[in-house]
Write a structure and sequence with these properties.
The protein is mainly beta. The chain has a single domain (2-193), classed as YVTN repeat-like/Quinoprotein amine dehydrogenase (Methylamine Dehydrogenase, Chain H, 7 Propeller), CATH 2.130.10.10. Helix content is 14%, strand content 36%. It has two helices and 16 strands. The chain has a four-stranded antiparallel β-sheet, with no helix packed on it. Strands 5-6-7-8 form a four-stranded antiparallel β-sheet, with no helix packed on it. The longest helix is centred in the last third of the chain and has 18 residues, at 191-208. The protein is elongated, with a radius of gyration of 21 Å. The N and C termini lie far apart (59 Å).
Length: 210
């Protein structure tokens, strides 16, 4: 979930659910149009709200600055036979103030697990063997140094450093870093390597004892 103001927030989740509130969370409405794919992360920055998910799903969530209406149209009680009919009924019953979903091309069908945006609206999305820079409203593959064997990595977290550096964490304690300015991502450390090294040092010390 991302809170935009004390009143407004957006949350995403399984089966393409996108929900929004404009009364501090007292009442939530689902936003139609995301499909059925699970959305795993959402963040906001630079006036943009971006969500990513499984199978390379990515959306910009555009929220009008001034709500037009808080009234929702009447909802039918008739059974819905198809997912398409359910989506259509949801769109018809949605209040006018709900944000609009705008699909983005992530350039991949790999799962995306996390996303971080800076104050400029640029940032990073990470996932299964995937590092994507988000700049100027679009995604592009991030350069990865040979020290980071990206084809074999699973990245589950992204963060922005205070010096505008970008960080990604993943399988087996991997930590990767880019210094910003388009620099390649390099493997900073893998905690499993640290543990192995510490264990080896302790074993060597025991062998040296008289």
């Amino acid at each position: 979930m991302v809170a935009l103001t004390p009143e407004r927030a957006v949350a995403v989740g399984e089966f393409g659910v996108v929900a929004a509130t404009q009364d501090g969370g007292q009442l939530w409405h689902t936003v139609p149009g995301a499909g059925r794919g699970t959305l795993t992360a959402i963040d906001a920055g630079g006036g943009r709200i971006i969500a990513v998910g499984l199978d390379g799903a990515a959306f910009e969530i555009y929220w009008p600055t001034e709500p037009e209406s808080e009234e929702a149209s009447e909802v039918t009680d008739e059974p819905l036979e198809t997912a398409e009919a359910e989506d259509e009924a949801q769109e018809e019953s949605a209040p006018d103030w709900l944000p609009e979903l705008r699909p983005l091309d992530a350039g991949t069908e790999q799962h995306l697990f996390d996303l971080v945006l800076g104050a400029s609206g640029d940032g990073l999305a990470v996932g299964d063997r995937t590092l994507l820079r988000f700049e100027g409203g679009s995604f592009a593959s991030a350069d990865a140094h040979e020290s980071l064997a990206l084809d074999f990595e699973w990245l589950g977290g992204a963060a922005l450093g205070p010096d505008a550096s970008l960080w990604a964490v993943g399988r087996a304690g991997l930590i990767a870093r880019s210094g910003g300015g388009g620099a390649s991502f390099e493997r900073a450390i893998r905690w499993s390597d640290v543990e192995i090294a510490a264990t080896s040092t302790a074993e060597d010390a025991e062998k040296e004892e008289p």
